């Protein structure tokens, strides 16, 4: 039986595959964008967006253009993070990183293009959604992905790597670098249905929790996982002295706290009477990666 | 007497100076953003946006948040273009380039942040503008700045530099790398007033012409200008064998064609009965830089 997660992933992949036909004088740019975009990935962020909207009866094909924008943002961030001046990684999702194939200049530009195209996707008129709510989606993504969100988190990550730091620094990095965009994925899904602001806030709280827990599990996998499972070089965090939860509190305590954070997120949903088999399946998958 | 251009520049500078207070764990990121953003520049793109809207009676303070978004985009593109993997420039607007001061990683992130924050500015609700028209502004900027616009132009520029190329390649590069964002600046200004689509189209045609002419004059200045006038290293285009108009047709013919392109743009405005002392002052300033 195909899981909900697999079904969403398949629809996202189909949408992405048709998005950027590589042709014309800028073919190499589109090739580089597609190289990273079409590599097999979890498609977690678009799937969370689809799952949240579907919880309230919104059809996936209405949500897809907005949902894939989140994957474009995620993909740009991976390409730029892998560059030599940043994390200098050779392997991503089991393949050579973008700049190893296309060179640094084109990889940088492919990242810039994907970030910009994400906003094009978000701003294309979506039938049935009031335009002011679509503008709100643009605002949310810009805030969650920008200096006050993902880029800010990556800045502190780069600054602190190899420089010591504290558990508070790790919490700041994970919240901004990873959790904010995952939170945005759920917040965008929650802007499709006509629901109360209280419900939207509860989903936002849950999204932040899920994002934090996801990154904590990711930290653990870097300690206990294999290159095959990860699709990237394991043990790299410790090697370059990256700030992670296990570095400060160990694997077991990291997993216990991740579970606790998720439970608090669930309480926010419960207090608004939100139950979602879709989100529950995703959450289980995220947490069980570490088993 | 303060010219209109100087007045707009001053208002843009005041707005930009208050935009990103540098504090908190990501202070270095904001410092890097402000370093490039607050360096003295022409502020051509926001001024074109203000001038276009004001032609139809729209007050500058209503347009400013949207207008500065165009400067954020321009500024991000300069930071990324100057990086070692791209044009590898040491001097910009008379000061050391961003990565020379903050390092490559932070410079890259500052560019990413400025691009993202531009969309935040564009999506903040502007009173008196219908939300669907504001969404249209986001679409235009994303299209003009993305793979089909500025980033596409920069890709071909990087690919062709030192590799020969043709006059058609130069035309493609200038149209996409430079003219598209200048065109967008005028297109966004034209979305503030309630005017006909025919008038908006005429302004768009004029904006493309102005953008092309601007870059052609810039090519000429790289041949005939001094470092003091330019705020960057002159003669660099020829040194690295960059594709420019003078390389193929010489300085005089480049200036003649720039004038011809501007005249065609003006005809589009005239056919819609649009006369604007503001845009005329700007256009004159752009063309006379080369005298």
From TrEMBL, chains A, B:
GO MF annotation terms: transferase activity
Cofactor: Mg(2+)
EC code(s) of this entry: 2.5.1.-
Entry keyword annotation includes Cytoplasm: no
Taxonomy, superkingdom: Bacteria
Keywords: Isoprene biosynthesis, Magnesium, Metal-binding, Transferase
Any Pfam family the entry gives: polyprenyl_synt
Keyword hit for Amino-acid biosynthesis: no
Family that this chain belongs to: Belongs to the FPP/GGPP synthase family.
Listed PANTHER family: FARNESYL DIPHOSPHATE SYNTHASE
Protein name: Polyprenyl synthetase family protein
UniProt organism field: Alicyclobacillus fodiniaquatilis
